[in-house]
Amino acid sequence: MTKSSNQFIKNTILKLLGAIGSEKEINKYIEKFSSPEQRFAVIKVGGSVVENDLENLISSLVFLNQVGLKPVILHGAGPMLSAALEEKRIDFSFINGQRVTSPEVRDVAHEVFKETNQKIVEALETQGAHAKGLVSNVFQCTKDDPDLGYVGSIQSVNIELVNEVLESDSIPVIAPVGFQSSEMLNINADIATVELVKAINPYKAIFLSETGGIFNKTGQLIPNINLALEYEELMQEEWLHSGMKLKLQQIKALLDHLPRTASVSITEPINLPKELFTDSGSGTLIKHGYSVAQHKVPDQETQEHFKKIIEASFSGNLVDGFFDDPGSLNIFMTSCKRATIAISNDFSVPYMDKFGVIPEAKGEGLGAGIWHEMRKVYPQVFWRSRPNNPINNFYTSICEGCQKQDEWHIFWIGISDYGALKDCIEYAINKPKSVI
Ligand code: ARG
User: Fold this and answer.
1) 33: buried, middle or exposed (CB in 10 Å: 19+, 13-18, 0-12)?
2) What is the pLDDT of residues 36-90, one digit of tens each?
3) Beta strand ranges found along 243-328 (DSSP E)
4) How many CA atoms within 13 Å lie on the side-chain side of 126?
5) Do domains 3-287 and 292-430 have the same CATH topology?
6) Maximal CA-CA distance, the chain
7) pLDDT (tens digit, 9 = 90+) per residue, 386-398?
8) Which terminus of the chain has a smaller tally of CB atoms within 10 A, N or C?
9) pLDDT of residue 246
10) How far is the CA of 38 from the centre of ligand 1 (A)?
11) What's the pLDDT at 36?
12) Counting Cβ atoms within 10 Å, is residue 3 exposed (0-12), middle (13-18) or buried (19+)?
């Protein structure tokens, strides 16, 4: 492909991406992910995705390739392996999610992994992306658990090989097969992914699955998980099934190993570009996160941080006198001082006067984390927002009611008394501006 047609494709793609996010946010992510300081991503592709959603998977990967981003792919083949074993009438079982591997199971596994690997590599090559399959030379292993048989416990990752492929401008496509001397060993794909991520230290670890995220008890996708705030709570929840708890545990262990800037996304292939190149994403974003402090009488330092965050996020000046009666305000602030909420208590119902996240931190899930903490303290709250504020989609998704007026949209939660609600709306409409 010539340089100019390459450029043409890149421009076309950027234009198409414009339909899912703003040019500014897309460029912000392309720049972030292309940084020479940190590898872009390790993408784990579940076996069932290869089986049932190969087309979308390849489109999304080719798309990344076209904008110049090279991920490292690790794929599973669980469902294909089970089917092959059933066909050959070979019995199999699992211990804690790991397949007990006899020599016969191991041999079939090796074949199935080779086939699956080749299928991905060929599909990528057919669509013009260079790819190289790495089937059994990346994970050096030992056999540690006699009950599991020919299952590899990873001792080291051949990172030089992966780097070589990346440097030759190809996408490494890795199968979870290990080796000990010349012997092949089977490895659980999630475990292999965790070790690969630790060795590569990428900006993002992405899990592509058919369901595309973690869901709450009413079946809605959880867009953000801030582990510092939510991990313990989530592990206690009855509605989170054990498979997801295990996954979350592994993800936490993984993030504990990576720099704070790293994150994990769980999404489905078709939504990968939206997840990567927009702030709101499309899937579940998991971050180590930050704790949130509550300041009931905000001191000078908190007031200064608050002012900085609000002025950056609203591109205006906080009015003088905002803190004239600090005792009537309750300020929530993340420990990184990049997101804040102010609740004013000078009316009969708590009023959310300000909610700000600095522009550079958008997409990190800080807003969702601080919101979650505020809601624990305030079951009843109301607030207003300008009709053109992009955050309104979020507000609409979490409020219990909304009244749209020309100048303001008024939202509320936990207020069911009609009279009280009328007073709240009246109060919100007439409240003087706090940022000018
Ligand atoms: N594009 C950003 C990233 O990939 C933000 C993604 C936000 N996703 C979400 N599910 N909340 O890191």
Assistant:
1) buried
2) 888 999 999 999 999 999 999 999 999 899 888 999 999 999 999 999 999 999 9
3) 263-267, 284-287, 292-295
4) 10
5) no
6) 78
7) 999 988 988 998 9
8) N
9) 84
10) 17
11) 87
12) exposed
Q: Is residue 260's pLDDT more than 60?
A: yes
Q: Ligand 1: residues within 6 Å at CB?
A: 29, 223-224, 263, 265, 275-276, 278-279, 281, 283-285, 363, 365
Query: What is the enclosing helix (H) or strand (E) of 98?
Result: strand 98-99
Quickly name the fold that domain 3-287 has. Carbamate kinase (3.40.1160)
Amino acid at 273: P
Q: Whose CA is nearest to atom 12 of ligand 1?
A: 276
Q: Which of 215, 221, 279, 288 to mutate to test the pocket of ligand 1 (most atoms within 8 A of CB)?
A: 279
Domain residue extents for the chain:
3-287, 292-430
Residue labelled with tokens 């659980």:
188
Amino acid residing at 92: F
Residue with tokens 């000018």, as numbered in its chain: 436
CA atoms within 13 A on the CB side of 52: 11
| Cα 265 to ligand 1 centre (Å) | 7
292-430: CATH, from 3.40.630.30, 3.40.50.300, 3.40.605.10, 3.30.70.20? 3.40.630.30
Report the Cα–Cα distance between both ends of the chain, in Å, rounded: 52
Q: Is the dihedral of CA 151, 155, 158, 159 positive or negative?
A: positive
What predicted TM-score, i.e. pTM, was given to this entire model? 0.86
E strands in 335-408: 339-344, 351-357, 381-385, 401-404
- Tokens 């929530």 sit on residue: 332
Å from CA of 276 to ligand 1 middle: 6
CB contact set of 123 (below 8 Å; sequence gap of 6+)? 54, 58
Which candidate, 413, 306, 293, places its Cα nearest to that of 356? 306
Q: For residue 310, what are its two tokens?
A: 């609000």
Looking at this protein, which amino acid is placed at residue 187?
Answer: I
Question: Residue 412 is encoded by which pair of tokens?
Answer: 């509320």
